[in-house]
Amino acid sequence: MQILGIHHVSALTANAQKNYDFYADQLGMRLVKKSVNQDSPSMYHLFYADEIGRPGTDLTFFEMLGVGHTYRGNNSISETGLRVQDDEAIHFWKKRFEQLGIKHEPIKTEFGRLVLRFEDHESQRLALVSDEDNEGVEAGVPFEHPDIPKKFGITGLGPVRLTVPKAEHTRQILGSVLTFENVGSYPARVENGHDIEVYQTGEGGTGAEIQLEERSNLTKEKPGRGSVHHVALRVKSVEELREVEQKVKALRLPTSGVVNRYYFQSLYFRDLNGILFELATDAPGFLVDEDESTLGEKLALPPFLEDKREQIERQLKPIKMRK
């Protein structure tokens, strides 16, 4: 069994329309699936990705109307990386952020790459990461956007940073359960902090990277809009999900068992730092129920919810989408 890399990251938003305006209009990602939370179908579940929603390119949001602010802290998925092709793209995005008034930090070099940190309208913590010298998991193909040259478009996810009080707990999961290996570290972003540990799996590179930050002096994060709910990692098959399940059970950690999410099969568990991991299969993917040319245009429901479509659609406020 080998974890292949990052599959998707799922976060919270308080407003689906404003979320679409930021991620589709301003960042140029494609809304490849407009669906609902399968466990609570009264709320949207929006999937932004590359042109066809390839595994590893997918940033998703659950709309929770009225959810409060995030109180940042420990036991959290504290930053989501978004890949771009090269250093030139990083500089393009810095200028675009300045033009659009998007909050961002100066460009930095970390772990040998240019990084541009920024926040969305709900203070979601994000970072554009250059693949200038990257080797490893292949990137996706950006969707066409009138204001963003394709060569500068977002190509996928990675790395993802975890901030935890006891790194040893998550380190054990990454190594003994999830096939990640330590490939180095870089200096802490806070004074007197621990170096940030870098772990990669599979073919490696930004699309298969988890960064681990130990911050024992923080209180536990209180989630809200702009916080990350879980990080999902790629596996080939349901058989590999069951193999991971046995490893997790051997550590006496509870799991969800294999869950059919229609677009992929999944397994969920939390480590002792409270980080929620999902393992998800690559197949069947987002083209199973929609044509490539019309991805994300209509509300997509898994078969078991189809008979409730009328009721579900009444509960959801329509999203005005860019033509």
Protein model, in words:
- By secondary structure, the protein is an alpha+beta fold.
- It has a single domain, classed as 2,3-Dihydroxybiphenyl 1,2-Dioxygenase, domain 1.
- 17% of the residues lie in helices and 34% in strands.
- It is built from 5 helices and 16 strands.
- The protein has an 8-stranded mixed beta sheet. An 8-stranded mixed beta sheet has the order 6-7-8-5-9-12-11-10, with helices on one face.
- Strand 2 and strand 3 form a beta hairpin.
- The protein is globular, with a radius of gyration of 19 Å.
- The protein starts with a strand and ends in an 8-residue tail after the last helix.
Record the SSE blueprint.
Elements lengths: L4 E9 L2 H11 L3 E8 L2 E10 L8 E6 L12 E9 L2 H14 L7 E3 L2 E7 L5 E6 L25 E9 L2 H11 L3 E6 L9 E5 L8 E6 L13 E8 L2 H13 L8 E2 L3 E7 L5 E9 L24 H7 L8
Parallel strand pairs: 1-4, 5-8, 9-12, 13-16
Antiparallel strand pairs: 1-13, 2-3, 3-4, 5-9, 6-7, 7-8, 10-11, 11-12, 14-15, 15-16
Summarize the structure.
The protein is an alpha+beta fold and 323 residues long. Helices cover 17% and strands 34% of the residues.
Corresponding CATH superfamily: 2,3-Dihydroxybiphenyl 1,2-Dioxygenase, domain 1
Q: Beta-strand percentage?
A: 25-35%
Largest sheet composition: 8 strands, mixed
- CATH-defined fold name: 2,3-Dihydroxybiphenyl 1,2-Dioxygenase, domain 1
| CATH top level class name | Alpha Beta
Average pLDDT for all residues: 97
Number of strands: 16
- Class computed from helices, strands and strand pairing: alpha+beta
Helix content: 10-25%
Radius of gyration: 19 Å
Number of helical runs? 5
At CATH level 2, the architecture is: Roll
- Basic shape: globular
List the secondary-structure elements in sequence, H or E.
EHEEEEHEEEEHEEEEHEEEH
Supply the number of structural domains.
1
